[in-house]
Amino acid sequence: MDNNNTIQKETIFKEIALWLQTQNYGVTQQDTARPWGGFFVIDESQASRFAQQFFPHLKMSDIQITNKLSPKILIVAPEKRLSWQYHFRRAEIWKVLEGPVGVKISDNDTEGELRELSKDSFIQMNKGERHRLIGLDSWGIVAEIWQHTDPDNPSDEEDIVRLQDDFGR
């Protein structure tokens, strides 16, 4: 990553942190070191408000499978891709806050066609469904909710099965 992209990354994370603060969201974790961008984890106690703000068309009874939602804001860098992955213990819901972003989805290990999602687009991935978030020409910002499917063993970062990864993880 060249210096201009580093400065741009620092700037975008500062802007999002400030915006989250103005929205009165508590950030419990921030990761700016991901090779594809990074994320902000929102305080679980604010998950219901987060869901209402970013997914107002969904009922909480449809969103909340277990008691935990793990709300996040994902930031994907231009021309970077998250791993081609799936999960055993969660489904995911995304809303594009700034975009466009690219998404690939498939029921098997073969990557699906690239779909371009513009601002305000919504997408839902089932447990086990293969998926990949892709940065296009600009920074993409996505609100994400994890729908934990196992109440006794909530999903975490270890619940990522990577089928392909540009960064060798």
From TrEMBL:
Residues 48-165 form the Mannose-6-phosphate isomerase type II C-terminal domain. The keyword Isomerase applies. Gene3D superfamilies: Jelly Rolls. This is Mannose-6-phosphate isomerase type 2. One of its GO terms (molecular function) is nucleotidyltransferase activity. Keywords: Isomerase. One of its GO terms (biological process) is polysaccharide metabolic process. It comes from Flavobacterium aquicola.
